[in-house]
Amino acid sequence: MELRVENLTVARGGVPVLEGLAFTLSPGQVLILCGPNGSGKTTLLRTLAGLQPPLVGSVSADPEQITYGAHADGLKATLSVEENLRFWASVHGLSDIAPAVDGFNLRGLLERPSANLSAGQKRRLGLARLLVTGRPIWLLDEPTVSLDAASVTLFADAVRSHVAGGGSALIATHIDLGLQAETLDVGPFKANANRPRSDDQRDAYADFDEAFL
Amino acid sequence: MIALLVRDLRLAMRAGGGFGLGLAFFLIVSTLVPFGVGPEAKILSRIAPGILWVGALLACLLSLDRIFQLDFEDGSLDLLATAPIPMEGIVTVKALAHWLVTGLPLTLAAPLLGMLMNLERPGHFWIFLTLLIGTPALSMIGAFGAALTVGLKRGGLLLSLLVLPLYIPTLIFGAEAATRGTAGLPASTPLLMMAGITAGSIALLPFAAAAALRVNLR
Amino acid sequence: MLELGKYTDAILSSWTITLGLLIALILVTWRRSVQVKQRLDAAEERAKQND
Amino acid sequence: MSLWEFANPVKFMALSGKVLPWVIGLCTVTLIPGLIWGFFFTPEASNFGNSVKIIYIHVPSAMMAINIWVMMLVTSLIWVVRRHHVSVRAAKAAALIGVTMTVIALITGAIWGQPMWGTYWAWDPRLTSFLILFLFYLGYMALWAAIDNPDTAADLTSVLCIVGSVFAVLSRYAVNFWNQGLHQGASLSLDKEEHVSDVYFQPLLLCLAGFTLLFVALLLVRTRTELRLVRLHRLEVRERMKDA
Question: Where are the transmembrane segments (chain C) (predicted)?
Fold first, then answer.
């Protein structure tokens, strides 16, 4: 499953943030998304995940093929690690959580309520969720926050084996994960009123931004 | 969908508050009213169906903002939105979980609390029946209100304001059916009207609520 | 002066309240319109300078 | 040129700017004479006495209260279906006018009710329906006020308006049903048609036209303000993004 994006404009609060984006994420590929804070990486990932509509353009991949790993892990404090994982697995129609548990070294924590986990352990559990979705395209927003060096390695291994199995990943991060990856800098796509625009972009903005005076 | 329902029920049981809160509030209302109105059995038994209905409605209102707010805050709602469950399904399951946690216990408790209010013999049955049919509508309408206000800070007060007028038809028909049934008058018209509202809410409001949720996640 | 009989209070109070509310609504609308126009003009000016 | 072209705020601003003085003028020449006629130059009614003079503010405001909600429903639907920017701002702009009309109808009704029925408030179906309508207006406006992003607010309030309308109609039936069930036969509502003869009807008609024109004039001004606010919001967001 390939994720292709052409001439995509994403907006936050109705205002274009990034425009004219074009890239392809093929199976087996890792793409690192970089750019300063507030440059629209999260907005882009949410748009790709289908949580918000793009202002212009479209995303070629089916949202059913994509899983989104956000800042927040979506864990329930009163449920145990195992219950949390089993829940997400069954939502996605899977039942085997063993690879996820082993991949992120959670075996010893299974019975613990996730309220009692450390920040890094929570993050590992949040990342383990990716494996139980069974979806090929991962969109990850700062996945390594609060992970120690050993856990980062675990994560990098998980991405590597996911990619080796024909999956792909788009990762917004500021650190070097030691992965074989291409880099996509969002800086050049920053929305700018002075940039020459194509007609369809113009139409989409026209309702308020350009035409109103 | 079943996994989501099981999870929500489990959360409600573990977090406390869930089952207890609505019931406790209901108990408080029905014990306080006689102190306020006076102990005259005649008056109490006449107003009992109405008081029980208002009490159940307020108890229901109390826990509405939890329907989506917690999932929104910890990011689960984003993840659920990208999961292979349609948004309408999420809304329906959430409303069902809310009903199982508040509406159903209230329905079961109402006949017992009716005794405190000198509710007459057929009244126990009628209050049970009307609440059983009416409370699902309260949960569904409440889920719609919760979906509208999910992203807002201090959404609780706003939620009550939005949901209040939406509850009025259900309340009128429900309390009317209970009152008439208790008095031995024909009650099928208000009962059918209320059943209609419940059926309509369950059939249509998930779409409105899902639309509101999608907007709020944007 | 018009003789309103026993309804004097009712008529005068309802008319006063109504006219008061309508005038208040007109004033609020007008004031807000002016304020917003000023703020928008200022913002447009800033936007032009920034470009 | 189709109606949809006014989805473009520029065109709407241009046109509404031209129309506005005329509407204000027309409003002045209908509303003020209408009110003066109704207040000073109508005879005493046999059954209401002079209290009939309240009709000139009570009936138009009550009609506007309902009509404005219907207008908001239609404009909200247009927004949901066509994402017509002017439409949803007009709905927002109308809400405050609508709630004022509702309050006027309620207050004048209560004041009128005191001498006629001996009580300020009765749970009469009409009065109750207006109270419920008032709650709907409040909720709608509170939701607008609570949300920062104008487009999000537009979407959510439109959904609320549509769902609320269904429940408002349900409430109307429920309330009729409920009151009938409690006080049999003691209907307090006034049957206007029967009592209104031409002497009262002509100034009433003028007042109705006046109130409608006042609504249109206020609506145009307020919609223009709302559109400017949207533009202002976008500019401010851009500024903030530039700073970041």
Answer: 12-30
Residue B65's domain spans which residues?
2-217
Q: CB contact, 8 Å: D142 with chain B? A: yes
Nearest to D139 by CA among D99, D169, D100: D99
**Do A208 and D9 make contact, defined as CB atoms within 8 angstroms?**
yes
Spatial separation of the C-alpha atoms in residues C16 and C33, rounded to whole Å? 25
Touch test B–D: 3 Cβ pairs or more under 8 Å = yes
B97's tokens: 């979980």
Chain A positions in Cβ-Cβ contact with residue C51 (cut-off 8 Å): 193-194
pLDDT 10s digits, B145-202: 999 999 887 778 899 999 999 999 999 999 989 988 888 888 888 899 999 999 999 9
Number of domains composing chain A: 1
Distance CA A63, CA A163 (A): 19
In this predicted structure, the answer to whether residue B53 has a pLDDT above a threshold of 60 is yes
Q: Does C3 touch chain A (CB under 8 A)?
A: no
| pTM, full prediction | 0.88
How is residue A83 written in tokens?
A: 């219950």
Contact C14 D54 (CB under 8 A): yes
ipTM of the complex: 0.86
C9 in reach of chain A (CB within 8 A): no
Chain Cα centroid distance, residue D124? 21
As a whole-number percent, the residues of chain C with pLDDT over 70 amount to 90
Kindly give the pairing relationship between strand A56-59 and strand A3-12.
Answer: antiparallel
Structural domain includes residue A98: no
Q: What are phi and psi of A15, to 5 degrees?
A: -110, 130
Diameter of chain D measured on Cα atoms: 73
Contact B48, B118 (CB under 8 A): yes
DSSP, collapsed to helix, strand or coil, labels residue A28 as coil
**What is the pLDDT at residue D46?**
64
* Domain boundaries, given as residue ranges, for chain D: 10-183+193-243
A172: in domain: yes
Whether A116 maps to a domain, the answer reads: no
**What total of structural domains would you count in chain B?**
1
A193 — contact with chain C (CB < 8 Å)? yes
Closest CA to A177 of A2, A41, A34: A34
Token pair 């100034």 is found at: D203
Structure-token pair, residue C24:
């208040």
Q: Domain holding A181: CATH number?
A: 3.40.50.300
D159 has a chain B CB within 8 A of its CB: yes
Question: Which range of residues forms the domain containing residue A171?
Answer: 3-74+131-210
CA D68/CA C8 separation, integer angstroms: 31
Is chain D adjacent to chain A, meaning 3+ CB pairs within 8 angstroms?
A: yes
pLDDT one-digit tens code per residue, B4-23: 888 888 888 777 656 678 88
- The three-state secondary structure class of A20 is strand
Q: Is D235 on the interface with B (CB under 8 A)?
A: no
Triad B164, B190, B195: Cα angle to 5°: 75
